[in-house]
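User: Earlier you gave me the apo prediction for this protein. Now I'd like the version with zinc ion bound, so I can compare the two side by side. Same sequence as before, with the ligand SMILES added.
Assistant: Got it. Here's the input I'm using:
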Amino acid sequence: MAKDKKLVEAITSMDVDFAQWYTDVVKKAELVDYSSVKGCMVIKPAGYAIWENIQKELDKRFKETGVQNVYMPMFIPESLLQKEKDHVEGFAPEVAWVTHGGLEPLQERMCVRPTSETLFCDFYARDIQSYRDLPKLYNQWCSVVRWEKTTRPFLRSREFLWQEGHTAHATAEEAEERTELMLNLYADFCEEVLVMPVVRGRKTDKEKFAGAEATYTIEALMHDGKALQSGTSHNFGDGFAKAFGIQFSDKDNKLKYVHQTSWGMTTRLIGAIIMVHGDDNGLVLPPRIAPTQVVIVPIRQQAEGVLDKAYQLKDVLSGFSVKVDDSDKSPGWKFSESEMRGIPVRVEIGPKDLENNQAVLVRRDTHEKMTVSLDEIKEKVTELLDTIQRDMFERAKAHRDAHTYTASNLDEMKDLADNKPGFIRAMWCGCQECEDKLKEIAGVTSRCMPFNQEQVADTCVCCGKPATKMVYWGKAY
Ligand SMILES: [Zn+2]
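And here is the structure of the complex with zinc ion:
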């Protein structure tokens, strides 16, 4: 038993030190490892399998809306990056430069893509001629590089995996429609699959993407009350098209600029899953994203018939992703290991259970145990996985709602920011000075102006002038 306890004791309690808890879980659940490459991470099989499931589900949803996958070069010549002024200013401080090819200095240095708007624009300028070529609905799965100064596994690393969608349209309306469509697709994915409730809204001009006319975002609340931007969708209008000369001849034979969008989700989502659902025993994975949904742990596996029954059960449950832990570790150790890895359902089966034609099911999220007949185990596991998926969403939503506050003046805002980690809803006049001041005085940034607006006061929380928008504020990862 002493040995069994060690695995769990190795994690810091989340209430004692949330940052350390996060690092411990990431490490003990074997999601990532550090690397000799500073600021970069090694994604291990348990972590990569979660990413593969995210990819699979998102890719399917993208394609249902007509999106096709492509692949662009990973280098961007400096002259290309500089074509759109806001864009280059936004990204220049964090790009990595390639200056040599072999031993020869390059005539023009190239950056490793921090994002690929410029490459898609360069391509679209050549590929789009007529209204018949539109819309272009392309996406690429790749990694990008941003030279971050401080890094944390999944949340901020110099190289990370993501998808970036880039579309071109004949009209402004179509581009706006696509921007919203993808934001809602992201939100639905987070809520249905990752069971992570999100606030959908628009970024203020200060927080929007470099070069965008409008940035829409989904914001989720982590267990420690900090916000995490979980996906963004940008409407570029025709700004990039003008900078790159992307024109098409329309049905009326007039030459027009295209309207563009881009949208992305990253491996940060794995960090979000950990921080929304995890507990002091480790990771808690939503059934629909868990690489292993059910682990079967044979008790006294050397006893006659136990292992055979365990393998039989695996076949019975073949519609799910099931593992039999037939290693020579003790059952107690296997229990805490499967909990650490966040496997949603554990099936325990031993000689006593065989006699009674039963097995014990244990929920990872609540630790609740139930004895079920082997004759109906498939139905029971199906039901249980659905219940867990649903309950996890409800729990996360209740947590978020309980940590969403309202402030009507600066003192309240500061008091909440200092003492109550969570979202703070407050009215805003729309000027950036107030936004800057709130950051300086209360340490909060505007997370988004939610689509669901609600008048929580009449005046700006900062300057007291008439307010135009209700904003979600908070401290963020
Ligand atoms: Zn104001």
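For your comparison, keep in mind: The first strand starts at residue 32 and ends at 34.
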